[in-house]
Design a protein that fits this description.
heterotrimer, A mainly alpha (339), B alpha/beta (269), C alpha/beta (302), A: ABC transporter involved in vitamin B12 uptake, BtuC, globular, C: 302 residues, alpha/beta, Rossmann fold, 13 helices, 41% helix
């Protein structure tokens, strides 16, 4: 089977899974909406007002969209970052960018900036500003005359991340007790329905980030030969590293800004797919995009239905469900490869 | 006939690191590689041999002097253009390299169409041919981690051949290989040289291998060219002792007539 | 001609509510409601208390998990906690008004409700006066003016009674501990600060900061409070916390045995029970004004 055909099959299969999960997610929730009504509403028929419409189209659908985008973006960022650093343990949060984004949002919440009840984009903008600041800091720290050494990049990312984490802790310790609940709730990470305007921006920025990583997927494969090895084959290693870093940072920062910090997805989704489909990034990145979206959507759907009407934090679910699956994959793979 | 590659008075210094260690330098090195010849680059450790490779493949840029590849100044060629002419064969792939043999060989096609997302059918055929040349076709679907040292050597060579270069650069091709694979490697190189007309730049600390395979030798020490010429001219005891700092004996190989160098092992003192 | 003028005059006197109700909430936002609210969801426990107090509980269709007073309120449908009420459950209740607060609910929740077209009435009481106004406003909003008036009159009477009892007495230094570890105390704008003043005491942390700031234990000791009141939240924490504070013998309050615990809910909810909190504080700060013996005072403090 040619690579093109294989990619088409894999994407087709994953897209089908994604659609199935999305459909399932639309059908369940705290409000009792009959399946027939859900299907009618999606098809464009159905009442023009009423509770069912509000629940399905204004609450569930935007939340599903947010979960799919966030999961896909994080998985692609993880895949790119793992290939860039040649380190399977690299997770987007190591970039330091998610710490910066979280800091930006916490500052906005704590100081009451962007608190106009109608000003919905305010928090996301602060998160994004924080992400950019962190990304720049990491890049500048790691950049040297000789280029962008990978181990320095990793260290710089960890340090910047720790710095922002500590700053958030400081903020939490001095904030008024009343505001504290909201801040901590946000920090646990949860997916919420996003308004259409923001959703469009989220989609566009994610598309740019995915393009930055996927567009150079072939060259990214060559990076496995080492930077010198890739250069000897004609790859502009420094330019490639910059581009992948930017893409991963953009994707991670955007997710945190719009949805909050969600861990683990960027680590296990690309790893799991790498074990199942092989290391070729041309297949891995699209698979991560679709599979990551389906994974986070499934986790979020569980999070909002398992103990309804209360909700679990989605980060808790991704860890609890993802970890055993991952361990199983790891052990079965290890058993195969051992000589 | 244009030389495959030329160094014209090339100097290079690594950027000064911390700690005050003197940066390594190449001082005004000039060399020429003619098409279809095998040039052996020999010399002690840190003589600058690996730096020459890095300069050739444009991983590094010279501080002064010019490098000419296939008649054109290297600075005017982009990396892919250089990679289409010069293929560097590393000793091995990095630890934990996850790809299969065929995937690695296909990477050699990258410089010919970097903008393509997937390789073309022609690329696949060329890769297959390269694998056939080095006799690794049967291993196409194997991950590299599972292969022996000798097999991996043939695979990285296949990848270099897939680049369809005019010049093949080999950096210590027989290090870490046992005798049998060393012999296989030499046979392969000879066949490629003869059948495909490839120029070969061979770097080896194994003087006898270099003497056996090369048409010409270039002896480097301290970043400078000490001497160059046919093996029997370059491999003379006085020069070698001066450069390597130990006593050597130079004989003639009983079977091939090429010079052989052996160390005169010192008494313990 | 006269009839025309009469007709015009009558038209001019027609109430605005024929075209919709314009309401201004406590943070100054204007809401336009098509009709007086009939289905209210309360995301604020103190608002739930107020609605019951003024007799408007039949309009209440949804409450949070924390709306526990009066006990009947627990039987209303729950929408979740204050930070993340379940939107689907909320929407299913078909509310025509949601009451929320910026201190305790999240802005994201208001935004979501706005987008779903559900009007949000924000409450933001800080002082005792604000609470009385809130009761009046809610009475206005739910057409229970009489009930509201009855409640506010009763509260004002009881507040005046306390004020009279403690008038002219020396004001002891009072330390109120909202939470022991980390030490959280009431500052400016906290309801309990005002209650302490009304109860005839001087909160040592009144100028410390906005809302409920942190304080180090050393600083607390440095203020030499003569009365210490530890807030009790739910049924936990009373005994151990008391023991810990009992050990700080350098403080005048501990030396004279004036270390008390009190029900936190009474002091922090911006509802009718704040006056019970006021009366409790007054009894603890000025027991002599209420003719209480030592033993009776201790009993009242549990």
């Amino acid at each position: 089977m040619t690579s093109r055909a294989r990619l088409a099959w894999i994407c087709g299969g994953l897209a089908a899974v994604l659609i199935a999960v999305a459909l399932g997610s639309l059908l369940v929730g705290a409000a009792p909406v009959p399946p027939r009504a859900v299907l009618d509403l999606i098809a464009g028929r159905g009442p023009s007002g009423g509770t069912d419409r509000a629940v399905v189209l204004s609450i569930r659908l935007p939340r599903i969209a947010a979960a799919v985008l966030a999961g896909g973006a994080l998985a692609v960022a993880g895949a790119g970052f793992q290939a860039l650093t040649r380190n399977p343990l690299a997770e987007p949060s190591i970039l330091g960018v998610s710490g910066g984004a979280a800091f930006g949002v916490v500052v906005a919440q704590v100081s009451g900036l962007g608190q106009g009840v109608v000003d919905a984009l305010g928090l996301a903008a602060f998160g994004f500003a924080g992400a950019v600041a962190a990304g720049l800091a990491v890049y500048l720290i790691a950049s040297s005359g000789a280029g962008l050494p990978v181990h320095t990049l990793l260290l710089a990312g960890v340090i910047v991340g720790i710095f922002f984490s500590a700053s958030i802790t400081v903020l939490i310790s001095i904030v008024d007790a009343n505001r504290l609940g909201g801040v901590i709730y946000w920090l646990l990470g949860s997916v919420a329905p996003i308004p259409p305007g923001q959703l469009v921006i989220f989609t566009l920025v994610t598309a740019v980030g995915v393009w930055l990583v996927l567009g150079q997927a072939r060259a990214l494969n060559l990076l496995a030969l080492g930077e010198e090895g890739a250069t000897e084959l004609g790859v502009d290693a420094l330019g490639l590293k910059r581009r992948i870093f930017m893409g991963a940072a953009l994707l991670t920062g955007t997710v945190v800004a719009f949805v909050g910090p969600i861990g683990f997805v960027g680590l296990i989704v690309p790893q799991a797919f790498r074990m199942l489909l092989g290391p070729d990034n041309r297949v891995l990145v699209p698979a991560a995009l679709l599979g990551g979206g389906a994974f986070l959507l499934a986790a979020d759907t569980l999070a909002r239905t398992v103990v309804a009407p209360a909700e679990l934090s989605v980060g808790v679910l991704t860890s609890f469900c993802g970890a055993p699956v991952f361990i199983w994959l790891l052990r079965s793979r290890v058993a195969r490869v051992e000589p | 006939m244009t030389a495959l590659a030329e160094f014209r008075s090339v100097s290079f210094a690594y950027p000064r690191g911390t700690g005050g260690r003197p940066p390594f330098e190449l001082r005004e090195l000039s060399l020429t590689l003619e098409p279809g010849e095998v040039l052996g680059l020999i010399g002690p450790n840190a003589a600058g041999k690996t730096t020459v490779i890095r300069l050739l493949s444009r991983v590094l840029q010279p501080s002064s002097g010019t490098i000419v590849i296939d008649g054109q100044p290297a600075s005017g060629l982009d990396r892919a253009a250089v990679a289409r002419r010069i293929a560097v064969v590393p000793q091995d792939v990095p630890q934990g390299f996850p790809y299969t043999v065929e995937q690695l060989v296909l990477m050699g096609r990258f410089p010919h169409a970097p903008a393509r997302f997937f390789e073309s059918r022609a690329d696949l055929l060329i890769a297959r041919e390269a694998m056939a040349l080095t006799d690794v076709e049967a291993l196409a679907a194997e991950p590299l981690e599972r292969l022996s040292g000798g097999e991996r050597q043939r695979v990285v060579l296949a990848r270099a051949l897939a680049q369809q270069p005019r010049l093949l650069v080999l950096d210590e091709p027989t290090a870490h290989l046992d005798l049998r694979y060393q012999a296989e490697c030499v046979a392969l190189l000879r066949r490629l040289h003869r059948d495909e007309g490839l120029g070969i730049l061979l770097i080896s600390h194994d003087l006898n291998l270099a003497a056996e395979v090369s048409d010409r030798l270039l002896l480097l020490a301290g970043g400078r060219a000490v001497t160059s010429g046919p093996p029997h001219e370059v491999l003379q005891a006085p020069v070698l002792e001066a450069v390597y700092g130990c006593r050597v004996a130079v004989d003639k190989h009983s079977a091939t007539g090429r010079p052989t160098v052996s160390v005169v092992w010192p008494e313990g003192r | 001609m006269t009839s025309l003028i009469t007709a015009l005059a009558l038209v001019a006197l027609l109430p605005v509510s024929s075209w919709g109700l314009e309401v201004v909430d406590q943070v100054g936002r204007t809401l336009t409601l098509p009709a007086p609210p009939q289905r209210i969801v309360s995301l604020v426990p103190s608002t739930t208390e107020v609605l019951y107090a003024i007799g408007a509980q039949d309009l209440l269709v949804g409450v949070t998990d924390f709306c526990d007073y009066p006990p009947e309120a627990r039987r209303k449908p729950h929408v979740g906690d204050m930070l993340s009420p379940n939107l689907e459950t909320l929407v299913t209740l078909k509310p025509d008004l949601v009451v929320a607060t910026r201190e305790g609910n999240r802005k994201e929740t208001f935004d979501q409700l706005d987008r779903l077209g559900i009007p949000v009435y924000l409450v933001d009481p800080i002082t005792v006066r604000d609470v009385l106004k809130l009761i009046t406003d809610l009475g206005e909003l739910t057409h229970h003016r009489e009930g509201a008036r009855a409640v506010t009159h009763d509260l004002e009477r009881r507040i005046a009674a306390v004020r009279d009892r403690v008038a002219g007495r020396p004001r002891p230094r009072v330390l109120y501990v909202l939470w022991p570890e980390p030490l959280i105390v009431p500052g400016r704008g906290a309801l309990v600060t005002e209650l302490i003043t009304l109860a005839g005491g001087d909160s040592v942390t009144a100028d410390l900061g906005q809302g409920y700031p942190r304080l180090s234990l050393e600083a607390a000791v440095g203020h030499k409070p003569e009365v210490i009141i530890l807030a009790r939240h739910g049924s936990r924490g009373g005994a151990t916390v008391r023991e810990q504070w009992q050990r700080l013998e350098s403080m005048p309050a501990v030396k004279s045995g004036r270390l008390y615990t009190a029900d936190g809910d009474l002091m922090h909810r911006y509802g009718p029970r704040m006056v019970v909190g006021l009366e409790t504080l007054a009894r603890l700060i000025h027991p002599e004004a209420f003719g209480q013996s030592e033993a009776a005072r201790r009993g009242a403090a549990r």
